[in-house]
Amino acid sequence: MRKQIPNIAGGIFLIILLIFPLTYGAADYDYIMHILITGFFYAILAASWSMLSGYAGQFSFGHMGFMAIGAYTTGLFCHYIYLSPEPTELCAETPFFGQWLVVVNPIGVTSTTLTQDCLRQALEAWGGTVDVQPMPVLLGIILGTLMGALAGFLVGMLVLRLRAAYLALFTLGFSEILKATISAEIDITRGQAGLELPPLYPNGVNLFGTYFEPTDKLPPYYTMLALLLACLAVLGWLARSKFGLFVRALREDQDAAAALGVNTTRYKVLVFTITCAMAAAAGAVQGHYVQIITPNMLFLLQMSLVVAMAVIGGIENFVAAAIGAIILQVVLELLRNSFVIGGIEVDMTIWRLVFFGLLLMITLRFFRNGLIAPIIAYFRREGVAEETVAKRASTVTGPGGGPHRTEAPD
């Protein structure tokens, strides 16, 4: 019965998350929903990074870089590409299934270049007689996910033949180069000014018989939660399969796994590609939720936050890493509230990170596999000791209780 406690607790936690938006009605509803949506976003990153580092032993600092690839892919796709029933004669365009695929020219960030937007000029010339459609957001998210997987595959093929230390250094450099490139290409990415994205549901959506505006929090909440559950389901299936057995063998002893016939490079590339695709999908959905993306998402502090969430939750258990990310995101936001002690105001916007760092140090020193994973393992291991003792006893005594002897082969 004790083995089922984690499943029961997980089911209750999931039910609470599912019904919370429908039952919570305080004045800070939008703020709390935003915290939880962001928590789900970090949970996807922490869980996928846990699979890569905790299960496969491949330490990467580029997870936020692949997240940004997903976000900027869908952002550029939705920002620059449109469908028109008529050719503009001004933009780069090509016939596409009876319509025209229009690619808008980059205009940078200065207000004087707004008149150079070829599509805007065409719309003014048409006088509202032509209906130009933006590309579907879902298609942009899919492309962002695929682009993140492709980038992960290429980086993996390039560097995963080497040892884990080289992977960490390479992905750190890759993330910094990507940030510098996005910041420098102002005409295309708008640099530090940020690239605007359409809402996750540009035309709103009907849920439970109620219409929700594009800016409402409930549809993105369930979308990000569904993406988190889908990622956890895929990671769980992989962990229980032969694939999971092989990647854990890589973590324990790569040379021994290779000696037993495991294609180490192939499995390292596969797990790297899958986890990068999950990070890219999370970035694409989050980008449409916040409706603006900047190179600041690639700061090393953001990557450090994901690593810390996974470590505190439990680096060798992706479910624990996801739960830890959600809890820590909520706690970090709650700690923003300053208070007064002895007439001195304590600014928690700064000190909250100090407390977070202390928690990380304590976890690394005294709790090797995080704070949540050992709790799950405690209940999962019910009866394991007794079963092991019984198996050992069966090798000593025979079926009748007498000594057991193993006959030598002829």
Structure class: alpha+beta
How much β-strand is present in the residues? 5-15%
Percent of residues in helices comes to 55-70%
Oligomer: single chain
The N- and C-terminal alpha carbons lie at a distance of: 47 Å
Let me know the average pLDDT: 84
What general form does the structure show? globular
Largest sheet, described in full?
4 strands, antiparallel
Q: How much is the radius of gyration in Å?
A: 26 Å
- Identify the strand order in the major beta sheet: 2-3-1-4
The beta-strand count equals 10
CATH architecture of the largest domain: Orthogonal Bundle
- One letter per element, helices H and strands E, the order comes to HHHEEEHEHHHEEEHHHHEHHEEHHH
Helix tally equals: 16
Low-pLDDT segments: 111-115
CATH topology of the largest domain: ABC transporter involved in vitamin B12 uptake, BtuC
Tell me the number of structural domains. Answer: 2
Report the CATH C-level class of the largest domain.
Mainly Alpha
Quick structural summary:
This protein is α+β, with helices and mostly antiparallel strands and 410 residues long. The chain has helices spanning 5-23, 29-55, 63-80, 118-126, 137-159, 164-184, 186-189, 218-240, 242-252, 254-259, 264-290, 300-313, 318-334, 348-366, 373-380, 384-396; strands spanning 81-84, 92-96, 99-103, 133-134, 195-196, 205-207, 210-212, 292-293, 339-341, 344-346. It folds into 2 domains: 2-78 and 136-380, ABC transporter involved in vitamin B12 uptake, BtuC (Orthogonal Bundle); 86-131, no CATH class.
